[in-house]
Amino acid sequence: MTDSQILTVSQMQAAEQAIFDKGTTVSELMEIAAGGAAEWIRRIAAGRSITVLCGPGNNGGDGYVIARRMREFGNEVSVVAPMEPATDAARQAREKWGGAVSTAGDGAHGGVFVDCLFGSGLSRPLSGEHALMVRDLAERHAMRVAIDLPSGVESDSGDLLNEKLQRYDATLALGAWKFAHWVLPARSIMGSKRLVPIGVEPTEGAAELIAKPTLAAPAAGSHKYRRGLAAIVGGEMPGAATLAAMAAQRAGAGYVKLLAEGRESLDPGLVCESGPLDDTIVDDRIRAILVGPGLGRSDLAERRLAAALKPRRPIVLDADALVLLKPGMIDTDHAILATPHDGELDMLCRNFAVIAEGRRARAAALAQASGMIVCAKGPDTVIAAPDGRLALAPPAPSWLSVAGSGDVLAGIAVSRMATGREPFEAACEAVWLHGEAARRCGAAFTASELARSVSDAYADCL
C-alpha cells in the first residue's frame, strides 16, 4: 500500500518524476501537496494566526501555497522568507501569494508556526542565522507544524543536523513517509505525523511501515496441531524461556511445548517435555522452534543450539543463541528469524564479516550475508530480509525497556511462525502485537504482565 511505504530521497524524487511524466506540472503538484497540508493546518490552527517560514526551494514554494490557502480560509497569515525563491515553481507560488513577505522573523508571533524552510533534500546543517530564525519563530508561537520534515533533519538517516532543534506539534509528510519520520533521533521531535497523499504510486524496493495485522480465529474444525506446535528450547535460566512460552500461548499457536533437560515447576497449561534435546526436537509435528531465551553460554548451551538447528525447521534465534551462533552453523536456505538487540547485532555483524554504518544498514547487510531475517529490536525496530525487504516499526511505549521484554517478543514470533507465517511476516506481526500489548499494559508493567496482555492485542486484530 502506498500509505505505508517509506521512501528514500532518491526514491521520492523518482516517484515525483513519474507523476510529472504523466503530464502533471511541478506547480500543479505543489498545489496538490500544499493544499492537502493546508487542510490539516486549518484544523490545527482553528482560526488562529499563522506564520509561514519559506525557503528558496520547492519546500518554500509549498509554504507560499499554504499561506495563500490559509488566507482564503480566513486566517491572518504572515510570510517570512530569508531567501528569494530559486525554482520556477517556487517563484510562481510566491507570485500567486501576492502578499507581504518579510526577510526576517523579528517580531513575528501568533498561533501556529509553519516550517517550510528546507525539506527532505537537506543534507547539511542549517546556517547559524537560519537555525536561530527557526528557533526564535518556533518559540514565539503556540504551536509548530513542519512541512514534510522539520528543517535541520536529514531524511534518509533521521540524523539531527543541528543542535537544539525545536520540537514540533505535528509533521505533515508530503506524498510518502520518509525514514526520518520513523527513526530516532528525528522521530522524537516531530510530534503527531500525518501523510498528505499526492498520487505517488507503489515504489519497487520501498521499505514499509509495519501495520496492524489482520488475524483470524481458528477454523471450526481446528485442533491444537492444525493451529501449530511451537517448541521452545529451555536452558540454564528457565524463567526467560517460560516468559517466551507465556507469550507464545497467547499469539495464535495451538500448542506450545517447553523442551527442557529437567522438569521445571511451571504453569500447568504449559507442557514441559524433559529428556535429551536430540530426541525431543525431532517431533515431526513441531512447526517452529525458539532457542535462546535463558539458554546460557556454556558448552551444553552450544550443543543445545546445534541440536535445535539440526532439524532445519523454521526457527527463531534470540538472546544467548545469537551470542553462540557462528556462520558455519546455518545455511542460507534455512528459514531463520534472528531477533538481536543492538549489542547482539554488532556481535553478529563481526561474526559474519558485515561492515555497514547505522543499524538499518547493518541489519540489511547481515540479512543478506547470513540468509536470516533480522529483526533488529529497540526503540526504532527494523526488520530486514535477504531479498531486500525492509520494514520499520511505528513507535511503541518506552515502558517496553524492561527485562524480559525481548523474551516476550521472541515468544510471539515463534507462535506466529508455528501458525504458518514465513519469518518476515511473522516478525512484522510480532513487533506490532508486542507494541500493542505494551500499550494495553499502561505504565510500569512487568514482562509477565506484558506476556499476558498479548491475547488482548491479538483480539484487536480479529
Keywords:
38% helix; elongated; 2 domains; UDP-N-acetylmuramoyl-L-alanine:D-glutamate ligase; Rossmann fold; alpha/beta
Share of helical residues:
25-40%
CATH topology tier name of the largest domain: UDP-N-acetylmuramoyl-L-alanine:D-glutamate ligase
- Gross morphology: elongated
Mean pLDDT: 94
How much of the sequence is in beta strands?
Answer: 15-25%
Can you count the beta strands?
18
* Largest sheet composition: 12 strands, mixed
Quaternary organisation of the protein chains: single chain
Question: What is the domain tally?
Answer: 2
**Rg on CA atoms, Å:** 26 Å
**Amino-to-carboxy terminus distance:** 20 Å
Class by helix and strand content? alpha/beta
Low-confidence stretches: none
Under the CATH scheme, the architecture of the largest domain is 3-Layer(aba) Sandwich
CATH class label of the largest domain: Alpha Beta
Cross-sheet strand order for the largest sheet: 7-1-9-18-17-16-15-14-13-10-11-12
Count the DSSP helices.
15
In CATH, the homologous superfamily of the largest domain goes by the name Ribokinase
